[in-house]
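Review form for a predicted model. The reviewer records the input and the model, then writes brief findings.
Reviewer: anonymous (R2)
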Amino acid sequence: MAVSRAEVESANLRRALAENASGRHAPAKSDRRIHPTLKSEALVGAAGDFVRMVSPHTEADEAAILLQFLAGMGAVFGRSAYFPVEADRHFGNLFVVVVGESSKARKGTSWGHVRNVLEKVDPSLAGGRIVSGLASGEGLIWHVRDPIGENDPGETDKRLLVTETEFARALTVAERENNTLSAVLRQAWDEGKLQTLTRKESARATNAHVSVIGHITADELKRKLSDTATANGFANRFLWVYAKRSKLLPDGGNLDPTAIDAFVARLRPVVEGAKSVKHFERDDEARRLWHSGYAELSEGQPGLFGSVTSRAEAQVVRLSLLFALLAGSDEIEEEHMRAGLAVWDYCRDSARFIFGDALGDATADDILNALKTAGDGGLARSDIRSHFRNHKPSAEIGRALGVLEARGEACKVMEPGDGRSTERWFYHAP
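Model under review:
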C-alpha cells in the first residue's frame, strides 16, 4: 500500500522530535536540577562568622542559617537605613522562605539558632515583635497599627518579624476569596504604609517594617503556589532558599554558649550604630561591580522561574545593604556587593532547582508533563482531553497548547484520517 507524502512527513518529524528529545539538542537535565552551591563570597562579616560558628554543631543547611540570619537582622535594624532607587527607598526587610526537599531538611533547626541570637541581641524584638499565624491582611496590620482614637495607642515599635514554619498554610489563606493577606504583604515589602480598602473604618499602619521567614517543602510549594501568586508579584518578593540536611549528628551539636554571648556582644554596638544611619550609597568599587552585573540581573527569564526571580535588582540592593549594616559601614563597599550578589545567586539557583522548567501555567505545565511521559508517540488532541478526564474546556486546552507551541516546547502534526485530519502533539525540547 502506498504511503502518502503527509504520512512520510509525519514520520520524519516524529523521528526528528525523538532525536531532539533524547539527543544532543535536548537541554542537559543538570542545567535545572543541580543543587545550588553557596559561594564563599556570601560568608563575609558578621553573617559569615555566625554561619561558621553554628554550622559544625547543627545538621541545618548553611544557606538556610545565613538567609534567616540576614532576614532576622533586617528586622532588628528596623526602618532607618535605606538605599534609594529613583523615587523608592529600599530598607533591610526581607521575605525569605526556606524550601526543603522533605520534612527532614532541618528547616526548624536552622531557625532555632537564629532566633536564639536575635532574642539576645534585641530582647525588645522577642517581646511581641516576632509573631506567627498569618490569617489576613487586617491581622498583619493590627500588629503594627497606628493609634486608633483616644483609647488605642497603637504599636510604637513598627518592626515585625513574621515566622511561618508551615508556610503552605499561609499560601492557602492568601488564595481565599476576599482575603487581603497577599495584597498587604506586597505593600509591606514595597513600603511602610499598610491599609486595606474596606467599607468600614479599619486599622492602618505607617512606617511599618515587616520581615517574613517561612518554611515549606518543595512538593507543598509547587502544589500551593498559584498562578495568581506568580502573576501579581507576590512570589517574586520572596527569596526562595533550597535547604537540605548538611550532615548527620546523632548526638546533636555542642555549641559553646560563651561563643554565642561573645557574638551577641559584638552585634549590639553595630545595631545601635545603625539607628543613626539613613541614606546609603555605594563606593566606587561597589558601583563598578553593580554596573557590570546589572544587565544580567535585569534580564527577564521565561516560565515560573522567571516569575519568581524577576525582582533580582531590588533583592540584591537589600542584601548588600544588610551586609554593609552588619559591617558597621556607612556605605556599601565592594565586599558587601559581592556578598549580596553571591546570596542572590544561591536564591536564583534555588528557584531554578525547585521550579525547573515549569511555566507557572497549571494547564500548560500539566500537558507538557503528559507529552514528556508519552515520549515518541505523542498525544492526540483526544488523548489530551482524556488526560483531564474531559473536565478541561477545549478552549482552555487549546490556549495552553498555544502557549507551549509559542515557546517551542511542543509542536503538532496533522495526521490524515477518515474524512478529516487530526492533531497529534509532541514534546519538543527547546
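Findings: Residues 5-27+359-427 form a domain with the Arc Repressor Mutant, subunit A fold (CATH 1.10.10.10).
Further findings: Confidence is low (pLDDT under 50) at residues 1-9, 11-32.
Recommendation: see findings above.
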